[in-house]
Amino acid sequence: MSRVDVLGIHVSVTNLDRTVETFARWIDDGERQLVCVSDMNALLHARADARLTEVYNTSGLTVPDGMPLVWAGKKAGFAEMDRVAGPDLLERVLAEAAERGWTQYFYGGAVGVAQELSERFQDRHPALKVVGVECPPYRALTDAEDAETVARMNEARPDIVWVGLGAPKQERWMADHRDRLNATILIGVGAAFDFHTGRLERAPRWMQRAGLEWSYRLYKEPRRLWKRYVLGIPRFLLGVLRHPPRPA
Fold this sequence. Notes:
Strands 4-3-8-7-5-6 form a six-stranded parallel β-sheet, with helices on both faces. It is of the alpha/beta class. Helix 1 (about 15-30) packs across helix 5 and helix 11 (about 215-220) runs antiparallel to helix 12. It contains 13 helices and nine strands. Helices cover about 50% and strands about 15% of the residues. The longest helix has 15 residues, at about 85-100.
């Protein structure tokens, strides 16, 4: 799959349908992969960290969760590129999983969030197979605790592990565990757990398509997010002007 270089991060030229088709191929072939769901904020974090850059650039997919990344791809000549938002991808893949029998493990979120997420989707898709839910503490795990987590996941044998730790923590976690877990796909989906359990409210669809979801989130959580957007948007735009997107 082609990629576009956006500030040194190689973002996959994909869309929602193509991403789900890729997941199906990986699971059918038993091909173990890591997936990064990247918006502007995640990309800026990765750009400033050589290890994160490597994680994003060597992933099975780094999907564009944010219209600025889609616009960057189109500017580089990839007209077929479209947004693959974490909450949308989670919903679409779980519907497909219920049909195909793919097994899921939810890892992350505040206490009770992963369990609630599982219950909500199993109510919607009774055939959905969830083999594990887990909410790790916010502190770093001890080596023994981490080994127990790996053992639990491998014993459960999920096809997909959904990681909701927030960027860039979830990308670092996936990179550290990619070679220790037997799951086919590790995918970090940030706040998707909270969106689907009603703890966060998504912007209206027209704002999402217009690239204005950031303004809605800023309105909802100004104290937490003002630095991300007030400082991050100019940094991103200036970077793109200085280093135009191009095929990777």
